[in-house]
């Protein structure tokens, strides 16, 4: 497949720019704000117009090639001019990705520019196309922001934080985040024989923060089943509603972090009473998610970008009893 551009559009660009300058209004050359409208802001329009012009020159040749690297090599001076703009170039480049569908020649060149400018702030991710890289990087930055302040992000990710300028209000809002995903990934593939570490991990999960952990058991002799007992402390007249979605979400997190676990068995216990006993298998969880869980936990970048979205949309109702009463326990 060869990349083709409209030569007339390229020839007309200088004329359009001249008209814009004469009229006294400088228009963002394809760059947009968070509403999707072009922004007539003179203070930021000049670099955006320059970037659009440079990108057009880079994409102009060689027409016979389908390799983005050939276009960059043929116009190294223009490419380097954008790189030298450093973080100043990112708002325009990011806004083009915000439009979506950047999977062609322009997208590949912009991805190369962004990743070179971001440097150490970029993620290690084998993306399928430029838009996939941008969407994944944005989700990564959002996941960090959900656990930290914007000031922290700007201090530690000064270039990456630019991607959040027009997104935090709409996409973060007041959403309650059930897990500290960054902290949890530190437990990736801990030894199942390290009971203290396993208990630490389980205590970070939703049920572990809601009910005290009574017992944790794991061993290869029980076919890779991790058993977790949570203790209830109901008194006369009290009841406890079991949240099956939370149970499944906790199981998904454990499967993603501990590759040697094949099933998770939850038990809610009090006195001699126990609720549960039926393990959630890895296969069952993957059927609910419609995704391979081991892949989701393979790298930190994928885990941080994909897991928050998956957990946020997870719903599970196995159609079993979900109310436990004190009277039921004491029968």
Mean pLDDT: 82
SSE-based structural type: alpha+beta
Q: Helix amount, in percent?
A: 40-55%
Number of helices: 17
Give the strand content: 5-15%
Amino-to-carboxy terminus distance = 73 Å
Unreliable parts: 1-29, 32-45
The whole-angstrom Rg is 26 Å
For the report, how would you describe the main beta sheet? 5 strands, mixed
User: What is the succession of H and E elements?
Assistant: HHHHHHHHHHHHEEEHEEEHHHEH
- Count of the separate structural domains: 2
* Strands, total number: 7
What general form does the structure show? elongated
Topology:
Layout: H1 7-22, H2 42-58, H3 68-74, H4 76-85, H5 90-98, H6 105-118, H7 130-145, H8 150-156, H9 168-171, H10 181-185, H11 195-203, H12 206-210, E1 213-219, E2 225-231, E3 239-241, H13 244-257, E4 263-270, E5 273-276, E6 280-281, H14 282-289, H15 293-296, H16 300-312, E7 323-325, H17 326-329
Parallel strand pairs: 2-4
Antiparallel strand pairs: 1-2, 3-7, 4-5, 4-6
State the main characteristics:
331 residues, two-stranded antiparallel ribbon, 17 helices, 5-stranded mixed β-sheet, elongated, disordered N terminus, single chain
């Amino acid at each position: 497949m060869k990349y083709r551009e409209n030569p007339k559009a390229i020839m007309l660009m200088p004329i359009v720019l001249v008209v814009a300058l004469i009229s006294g209004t400088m228009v963002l050359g394809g760059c947009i704000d968070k509403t999707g409208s072009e922004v007539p802001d003179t203070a930021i329009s000049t670099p955006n117009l320059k970037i659009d012009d440079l990108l057009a020159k880079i994409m102009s040749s060689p027409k016979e090639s389908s390799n983005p690297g050939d276009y960059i090599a043929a116009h190294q001076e223009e490419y380097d001019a954008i790189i030298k703009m450093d973080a100043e170039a990112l708002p325009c480049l990011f806004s083009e990705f915000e439009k979506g569908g950047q999977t062609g020649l322009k997208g590949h060149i912009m991805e190369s520019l962004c990743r070179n400018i971001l440097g150490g702030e970029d993620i290690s991710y084998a993306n399928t196309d430029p838009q996939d890289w941008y969407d994944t990087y944005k989700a990564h930055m959002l996941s960090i922001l959900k656990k930290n302040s914007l000031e922290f992000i700007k201090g530690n990710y000064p270039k990456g934080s630019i991607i959040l300028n027009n997104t935090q209000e709409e996409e973060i809002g007041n959403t309650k985040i059930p897990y500290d995903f960054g902290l949890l990934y530190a437990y990736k593939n801990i030894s199942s024989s390290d009971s203290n570490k396993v208990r630490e991990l389980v205590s970070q999960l939703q049920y572990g923060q809601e009910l005290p952990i009574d017992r944790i058991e794991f061993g290869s002799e029980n076919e890779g089943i991790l058993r977790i007992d949570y203790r209830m402390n109901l008194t006369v007249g009290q009841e406890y509603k079991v949240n099956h979605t939370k149970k499944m979400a906790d199981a998904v997190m454990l499967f993603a972090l501990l590759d040697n676990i094949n099933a998770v068995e939850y038990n809610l216990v009090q006195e001699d009473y126990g609720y549960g006993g039926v393990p959630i298998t890895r296969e069952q969880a993957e059927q609910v998610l419609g995704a391979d869980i081991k892949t989701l936990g393979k790298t930190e970048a994928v885990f941080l970008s994909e897991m928050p979205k998956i957990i946020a949309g997870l719903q599970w109702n196995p159609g079993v009893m979900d109310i436990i009463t004190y009277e039921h326990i004491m029968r």
